[in-house]
Known about the structure:
Blueprint: H1 2-6, H2 8-34, E1 37-39, E2 45-48, H3 52-58, H4 63-92, H5 99-111, H6 114-124, H7 131-138, H8 156-184, H9 188-196, H10 201-229, H11 233-238, H12 250-258, H13 262-287
Antiparallel strand pairs: 1-2
Helix pairs in contact: 2-13, 3-13, 4-8, 4-10, 5-8, 8-10, 10-13, 12-13
Main location: membrane
Family: Belongs to the binding-protein-dependent transport system permease family.
InterPro entries: ABC_transporter_permease, MetI-like, MetI-like_sf
Amino acid sequence: MRRLRALEPLAWVGPAIVLIALVVIWPVIEMIRSSFLEISRLGVVRGWTAGDNYVKLFGEKDFADIMLRSVIWVVAVVVLTVVVSLALAQLFNQHFPLRKVARWALIAPWAASVLMTAIIFKWMLDPEVGVINQIRVKLGLIDAMGGAAADQLGDASTAMPWLVFVAVFVSVPFTTYALLAGLATIPSDVYEAAKMDGAGRFRTYWSITLPLLRPALTVAALINIMNVFNSFPIIWAMTHGQPGYSTATSTIFMYILKGSDIGESAAMSVVNFGMVIVLTVIFLRVSRWNKEVA
C-alpha cells in the first residue's frame, strides 16, 4: 500500500510528462538528428552526412547578416514593446471615463490573427492603392505617380521599420495586460508611504513601481523574446524576406532553405534553438530575475 501511495503522484504528473516528451523533447531530438542527414525535397533520407549540413549552412554568404539581423529584430521589437506597454499599463491603471472600453479596444490587435494583421498592413502599404501611400500623396510627401519611394516594402531600409512596427503592434496588448496584472499586485500602502516621505511621481515610479513590477516584466519580456525570435507570419506575409534576404530573419531563412535542402534547414533550426536559449540566458542574467527586491 505504501508503494502504491508513493506512485500516486505519477497519476497526476504522468500525462503531463508524456505530453512534454511527445510535443517538446521528441521533436527536438528529431530536429537534431535530421540536421545530420541528407534528405531529399520529397522527404526521402539518403544517408548520414556528419556535419556537412552545418558546414554548408555556415558557408552561406548571407548567414552572418541574417543572424545579426535576427538579434537586432528581437532587441528592437522587445524593447519597443516593453517601453510602449509600460506607458499603456500605467495609463490604463488610472481611473478615467470609458476605461473599460479602452481596455477592450487594446485586445483587438492581440485577438486578431497575426497573419491577417500583417496582410492588412501590406495592403495599406501597397505602392499604388495603399491607404498609407494615398495619405503621403495628399501630404505631398511623394509624387502622385508613386515610383520607388512609394514601395516601402521593396527596400530593406524602409521595410524593416514597418516590420518592427507591426510586430510591436501585435505584441503590445499581451505585454500591457501582463504588466497591468503586475500593477494590480502592488499594495496601495506602499505608495501612501512614499507620498508621506515626499517622493515625487517619477521617484515613486522608478524606486517603487518598476522594482515591484519586475516579476511581471521579466515574464512578459521573456515570452516576447521567444515569440519574436520565432516570428514567421509578419515577415513572410509582408516581404517574404525580400529583396534578396535583406529582411529575412533566421526563421524565414530556415523556411526558405526547406524548399531546397531539408537537412540544411534542420541545421538552421538547431542554430535557432541554440540562439533562443542563448538570448534567454543573457536576458535572465541581465534582468537579475532571481534577486530579491530591496
